[in-house]
C-alpha cells in the first residue's frame, strides 16, 4: 500500500473511532450564546477582530456573522504545533496587516490548550500599543498544564476533556479541520 493510501486509511480510522464531545448543533448553539456575550462587551466600540490562522478560521467565520457591532477583520498566523500533536515554540508565520496601536483587539482562536500561543499573541498586540486585548476561543481544554495557573480566555464557548481534539478548525496532523463538531482522538490513535 502506498504511503498516501496508508495516511488516508489512518485519517478515516481516526475520524470513525473518535469520541464526539460536542455535536455540530451543540457547537452552533454555543457560538450563538457567545456572540451575545461578545456583542454586549463591545457596545460602543469598534474593535479589530483578529482571527488566528489556521485553526481559528471556521469558528471566526461562524462567530463574526452573529456579532452586531461595527468591526474590522484581520488575521495572523502563529503556530507551535505545525501539523504535530505536541507543541513547540510559538512561530510567527504572518503578522496582522492593520496597525493595532490604540485599537481594541479581539483575538479569536479555536482552542486554548496550554495557552502559550494566546499569551504570545497578547504580548505582541500589547507591544504594538493596542488599547485593549481580549481573547475568545471556541474550546478550552481542561487540564492542569496551562502556561499560567488558571489561565482563561475572556470569552469561551465550550470546554472539552483532555484528549487531542479535531473538528471546527482544529486539525489532526493537518487534516479534519472540516469536521463540523468537536471530536476527541482515542488514546490508541493519538
Ligand atoms: O494553547 P496552545 O497549546 O498554545 O495551543 C493552541 C494553538 O494550537 C493550535 O495552533 P497550531 O499551532 O496547531 O497552528 P494551526 O492553527 O496553524 O494548526 C490552535 O489553533 C491554537 O492556536
Ligand atoms: O487538541 C488539539 N487539537 C488541535 N489543535 C490543537 N492545538 C493545541 N491543542 C490542540
UniProtKB/TrEMBL annotation:
SUPFAM superfamilies: PRTase-like (SSF53271). This is Hypoxanthine phosphoribosyltransferase. InterPro entries: HGPRT (IPR050408), PRTase-like (IPR029057), PRTase_dom (IPR000836). GO terms for biological process: GMP salvage; guanine salvage; hypoxanthine metabolic process; IMP salvage. One of its GO terms (molecular function) is magnesium ion binding. NCBIfam families: PRK09162.1. It catalyses: IMP + diphosphate = hypoxanthine + 5-phospho-alpha-D-ribose 1-diphosphate; GMP + diphosphate = guanine + 5-phospho-alpha-D-ribose 1-diphosphate. Keywords: Glycosyltransferase, Transferase. GO terms for cellular component: cytosol. Residues 23-148 form the Phosphoribosyltransferase domain. It holds the Pfam family Pribosyltran. The lineage of its organism: Bacteria, Pseudomonadati, Pseudomonadota, Gammaproteobacteria, Oceanospirillales.
